[in-house]
Here is the input.
Amino acid sequence: MSAFRAAFERILRRENRRAAPRPGRLEHIHELESKILGNRREITIYLPAGYDDNDRRYPVLYMQDGQNLFDAQRAYIPGQHWRLQESADGAIGERTARPMIIVGVDHAGVSRADEYTPSRDPKHKAGGRAGDYARMLIEELKPLIDTRFRTQPDVENTGVGGSSLGGLVSLYLVLRHRDVFSRAIAMSPSVWWNAKEILGLVDVFSGPPPRLWLDMGGREGMEGLKDARALRASLGAKHWPGGAIRYYEDRRGDHSERAWANRVRMALEFLFPPA
Here is the structure.
């Protein structure tokens, strides 16, 4: 190798290191016990780059289905996770989103459908514990996170998010607990649950409209697209300001962790735009 080529490659490596966003890091709360729900779950906390270098406080995003967010081996389909850490690192490092703390809340296995739905669906013979799940987040988990980490605990800096049933419960949380959550990500939400009950919750919602990312994949079927469009129309009928909602249809997106991984950076950037 010539001296010129060696010098050029050293410069290229140095520039690549400069361009790469600084990584955040993950912490864990193992076996968090909920007295409200009567079960335990893992909590994964993403702390942005620079968290240990200053004393600033950060907004917080509580994400459902924590198994699928950060760890390829724990994902529903091993190897297919949201790559959420990489997306957050990229958005924060390139200053297209504010630095934030992300709390990944594991689902409770066989109790997932019950905890992520606001009512019992006779067709599926399950559901109805979203109220208790909300209490777990608000009364048990959030105080713990606010105590252990440097959060901005006020409503304007607290959001929720998820996909599928996790997207449904995130909508429920931001509609029913607007005094706690002001931002939400609802990817491919299960609008269909119990005769599209979520549309009724939109109809009776009052208060300041939360900032909301809503999406659906073009390969999730026409019913899924119709449901998402109906939800968007219901939100519009409530005079949702255009700047407070972003609706996105991913033409090639299916109902999978891989599809949601492709969209999550855009959702983070919309939910927490740079100051």
